[in-house]
Specification:
Elements (H helix, E strand, L loop, with lengths): L8 E4 L5 H12 L3 E6 L2 H12 L6 E5 L5 H9 L6 E4 L14 H29 L2 E6 L12 H21 L4 E8 L5 H13 L4 H10 L9 H12 L10 E4 L9
Parallel strand pairs: 1-2, 1-4, 2-3, 4-5, 5-6, 6-7
Helix pairs in contact: 1-8, 4-5
Bound molecules: NADP nicotinamide-adenine-dinucleotide phosphate.
NADP nicotinamide-adenine-dinucleotide phosphate (NAP) binds next to helix 1, strand 2 and helix 6.
Length: 259
C-alpha cells in the first residue's frame, strides 16, 4: 500500500533507540524526510546511519534533550514545515509512590505530559495552514490499565491523554489528526530497566522475569519496535485521515483479559 508519505517532513522525538527508532525507520522507509533525536551523540549518529541506509528520503539528526526548552527550540529550529510530529521521551522511573516528592512529579509531568503539549502547540498552526498534520503520541498501556509501581507514568500519561482528547477534536477539520499508540510490552532497553525494580524486589533475575512476562501476554511474546513503527507509519499516512483522537493499544492482547 502506498502510504502517501514521500517528501513529508517528520520529527521523531527520542528516536535513537527503541520505539521511537522503530517509528523513524518506518517513516524513512516510506519516503518521509526524518529528523531523529536523542541525547547521546554517538548512539544518535549510529541510528541515523542505520536508518539512512534503508531510507527513501533524507535522514537527519538533532542531538538534544527534548524535555528542555533549549532542546525543543533546537529541534523546532531545525525542522521547518513539519507534517509529522512523533512525541516521545524516556519514561519515568519505576518505584514506590511514597518515595516520590514534588520534584519527581514535576519531572514526570514535564517529560511525559508538558513536553508533547509544548511541541504540539508550536507546530499546530503550520499544520492547519498546510491542511495536513499527523501527531502521534507514544504513551503506554497504563493509560487504559494503570501499572503497579509506574505511578508517575500512570499520572503523567493520563494527563496527556486528557489534553489530547479535547485538542484533537479542535483540529480535526483541517486534516490534522492526533492519535496515541499505547505500547504494552516491547523488547527495548526500557523494558529491561522496568524489570530491574521487580528483580530487586524478588529473588529472580531480570532474564527469568522477562520469560515469565512473556507467558502472561496472550501473544506469548514481546512486541518489536518494527511492528510499532508500522502502525505509526499507517496512522501518519493519507489513508488514516479519518482516525483521530484515538488511543490505540498495541499489546499482544495483554490488557483487559480476565485471569
Ligand atoms: P528506550 O528503548 O529506552 O529508548 C528511549 C529513547 O529515547 C532513546 O533513543 C533515548 O536516547 C531517547 N531519549 C530518552 N530521553 C530523551 C530525552 N529527554 N530527549 C531526547 N531523547 C531522549 O525506550 P522505549 O522502550 O523505546 O520507550 C519509549 C517510551 O515508551 C518511553 O516513554 C517508555 O516509558 C514508553 N513505554 C515503553 C514500553 C516498552 O515496553 N518498551 C511500554 C510502555 C511504555 P538517549 O538516552 O541517548 O537520549
Amino acid at each position: 500500500m502506498e502510504l502517501g508519505l514521500k517528501g513529508k517532513n517528520a520529527l521523531v522525538c527520542a528516536s535513537s533507540k527503541g520505539l521511537g527508532k522503530g517509528c523513524a525507520r518506518a517513516l524513512a522507509q516510506e519516503g518521509a524526510n526524518v529528523w531523529l533525536n536523542g541525547r547521546d551523540a554517538a548512539t544518535l549518529e549510529a541510528a541515523r546511519l542505520e536508518i539512512e541506509s534503508l531510507a527513501a528520503g533524507e535522514v537527519s539528526s538533532i542531538c538534544c534533550d527534548i524535555t528542555t526548552k533549549a532542546g525543543r527550540d533546537k529541534a523546532l529550529g531545525a525542522t521547518p514545515d513539519l507534517d509529522i510530529l512523533v512525541n516521545n521521551a524516556g519514561g519515568p522511573p519505576v518505584g514506590d509512590f511514597r518515595s516520590w516528592d514534588l520534584t519527581d512529579w514535576e519531572s514526570a509531568l514535564n517529560n511525559n505530559m508538558l513536553t508533547p503539549i509544548e511541541l504540539f502547540r508550536s507546530v499546530i498552526d503550520g499544520m492547519i495552514e498546510r491542511r495536513f498534520g499527523r501527531v502521534i503520541n507514544i504513551t503506554s498501556s497504563s493509560v487504559k490499565a494503570p501499572i503497579q509501581h509506574l505511578d508517575l507514568s500512570n499520572g503523567a500519561r493520563s494527563g496527556l491523554t486528557g489534553f489530547f482528547a479535547g485538542a484533537s477534536r479542535q483540529v480535526a477539520s483541517y486534516n490534522v489528526t492526533v492519535n496515541a499508540i499505547l505500547p504494552g510490552r516491547f523488547d527495548t532497553d526500557r523494558l529491561r530497566t522496568s524489570m530491574t525494580f521487580a528483580a530487586q524486589k524478588s529473588d529472580q533475575s531480570i532474564e527469568e522475569l522477562l520469560e515469565k512476562g512473556k507467558e502472561i501476554i496472550p501473544a506469548k511474546r514481546f512486541g518489536s519496535p518494527d511492528e510499532f513503527g508500522a502502525l505509526c507509519a499507517f496512522l501518519c499516512s493519507t489513508h488514516a485521515s479519518y482516525i483521530t483522537g484515538q488511543n490505540i493499544l498495541m499489546d499482544g492482547g495483554l490488557v483487559s483479559i480476565s485471569p
